[in-house]
Amino acid sequence: MDLGAFRNQLRLKKVSSAYLFTGSQDLLKAEALEELRQAVAGDRGTVRTFIAGETSAGAILEAQRNLSLLDPVAVIVIRNAAKLKGECEELAAELPSLPSGPPLVFWDESVDKRGGLFAAIARAGGEVEFEAPKRDKLAGWIQERAVKIGGHRIDRAVAEELAELVGDDLLALQSTLERLSIVVGREQPIGSQQVAEHVVSSRLHAFYELQRALAEKNALGAVALLRQVIDEGGEIPVIVGALVAEVRRLLIAREAPSGVDLSQRLASIGVPPFRVDGIKKNAQRFSTVRLRRAIEELADIDIGAKTGRGEPVAAIEQWLLSVCTEAPAGRHARRA
């Protein structure tokens, strides 16, 4: 069941005795939990939280059955639900006979649903999956949330840029928008300048700029940005991954046949529309052969870093200088 179906059930006053909240988006889970609390008890009930591994099945069941008039509980949440072990069997046995009362919400990113408690909840239609909006809808979510937070207008291109820099973690995006709201003031527009100045952590921004320097064949700039990322604690596997991702984008654009919808191809690997023209232009700076070899070289650097062979930072520096100083693609073509 997705979030929309869950909300429809609440509107119809259909509340299950147990739910399984899975997926990566804790912000959406928290909002759904509040909606469930409101549906069960309005403003009168509270949420009682247990942490799996630090509680017992008996304590959870007692909280569900013994309702306090002084502190009424509307919903019971069990976080880190995947860590439930022997408690699962006891809870699964009691699930069919739970009295009317606060529903149980088992909360985790993923759980084993091959049997027992979680499989029973899923079969009963109580699993709600919380995933980020797809890339083509994420900018719209940002625009809507900016209005909700402070009445801010944010152009779609700026929202797409924000998604590219911060990622699709909705909690991180909301925190970013809240900080921006304080900076610009209520009902003021949020533009690209505010995003550049106030949103991105220096490390994230350096990663983004490193990719752009590579794509533009700015060798000295790319090396300087690499050193900045390293100084700020950037890890070699993450750096290599960021460089591989950019080279793959360039390779897809370089190899795309004439007339093919490049926007669709790049969107399938998470590239927002506002970056397509730039990638297409920069791809022409490289030969296909060099881009393919660049990915193989990065794989070798990654293996060397993980096995303790060589000096990975120096290897990446040399790689950047080699790739960025390759002769223009057209010159390679003429020699061939």
Can you give a write-up of this model?
The chain has a five-stranded parallel sheet, sandwiched between helices. The chain has helices spanning 3-11, 26-41, 57-65, 86-94, 116-123, 135-150, 156-166, 170-184, 192-199, 202-215, 219-231, 236-255, 262-267, 276-283, 288-307, 312-324, 329-335, and strands at 18-22, 46-51, 73-79, 104-107, 127-129. It has three domains: 3-129, Rossmann fold; 135-199, Orthogonal Bundle (Helicase, Ruva Protein, domain 3); 202-335, Zinc Finger, Delta Prime, domain 3 (Up-down Bundle), CATH 1.20.272. Residues 330-336 have low confidence and may be disordered. With 336 residues, it is an alpha/beta fold.
Please tag this protein with its features.
336 residues; alpha/beta; Helicase, Ruva Protein, domain 3; Zinc Finger, Delta Prime, domain 3; 3 domains; 5 strands; elongated
Strands side by side in the biggest sheet: 2-3-4-1-5
Task: Give the low-confidence spans.
Answer: 330-336
Specify the structural class.
Answer: alpha/beta
Count of helical stretches: 17
Please state the overall shape, judged from the principal axes of the Cα atoms.
elongated
What is the C-level CATH assignment of the largest domain?
Mainly Alpha
Rg, Å, rounded: 25 Å
Amino-to-carboxy terminus distance: 56 Å
Strand element count: 5
Largest sheet: 5 strands, parallel
The tally of domains stands at 3
| Average pLDDT metric | 86
How much helix, percentage-wise, in residues? Answer: 55-70%
In the CATH scheme, what's the topology name of the largest domain?
Answer: Zinc Finger, Delta Prime, domain 3
Order of helices and strands: HEHEHEHEHEHHHHHHHHHHHH
The CATH architecture category of the largest domain equals: Up-down Bundle
Query: Beta-sheet strand percentage?
Result: 5-15%
